[in-house]
């Protein structure tokens, strides 16, 4: 979220952050408020069931009229009440479809992979099953633990998320079955570095 706020200060970026929401008080809410961005919190615990919470969340989001919703660090499964109304982008710390879920980095290390990475994808009603927008690789180094590997993945995730959101906003996209094409150059990537090959 902080990387998107920073990127959006440049008019050439092509996207603006219209609001930041969460299901609990978090550092991102404070940062957004300090930057003058409207914020809202919709606690999950305040509702009888998931569907009611999703419906209220969808209405809160709709009040800001976003063209795109970005789920970055939002660890709740969004239901049809939200997904039927908005296009939602998420980032995940693995190369989907491998290692979906909340423990992707731990699971990749336990499996013994040599390369993992990050995925930007559209959100559907499954857990990390939506169409892949883009991916970047991160090599697993000898001696990596969950914390060290996750920190390197977060670095490339931030760059990827900023790149993907900017390209979606500036150039649009098409979706053919599960194949996402950004603007006129499908598959182009501007953030892969020699370190991550």
TrEMBL record:
It is an enzyme of class 2 (transferase). Its EC number is 2.1.2.2. The lineage of its organism: Bacteria, Bacillati, Actinomycetota, Actinomycetes, Streptosporangiales. It comes from the Bacteria. SUPFAM superfamilies: Formyltransferase (SSF53328). This is Phosphoribosylglycinamide formyltransferase. It comes from Spinactinospora alkalitolerans. NCBIfam families: PurN. InterPro entries: Formyl_transf_N, Formyl_transf_N_sf, GART.
């Amino acid at each position: 979220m902080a990387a998107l706020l920073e990127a959006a200060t440049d008019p050439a970026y092509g996207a603006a952050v219209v609001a930041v929401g969460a299901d609990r008080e978090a550092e991102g809410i404070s940062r957004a408020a300090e930057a003058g961005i409207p914020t809202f919190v919709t606690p999950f615990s305040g509702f009888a069931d998931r569907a009611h919470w999703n419906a209220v969340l969808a209405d809160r989001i709709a009040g800001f009229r976003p063209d795109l919703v970005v789920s970055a660090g939002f660890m709740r499964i969004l239901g049809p009440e939200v997904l039927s109304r908005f296009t939602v982008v998420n980032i995940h710390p693995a190369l989907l479809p491998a290692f979906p879920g909340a423990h992707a980095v731990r699971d990749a290390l336990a499996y013994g992979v040599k390369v993992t990475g990050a995925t930007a994808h559209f959100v559907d009603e499954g857990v990390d099953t939506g169409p892949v927008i883009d991916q970047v690789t991160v090599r697993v180094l000898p001696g990596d633990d969950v914390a060290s590997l996750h920190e390197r993945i977060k670095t490339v995730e931030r760059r990827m998320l900023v790149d993907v959101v900017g390209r979606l906003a500036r150039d649009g996209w098409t979706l053919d079955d599960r194949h996402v094409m950004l603007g006129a150059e499908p598959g182009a990537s501007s953030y892969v570095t020699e370190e991550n090959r």
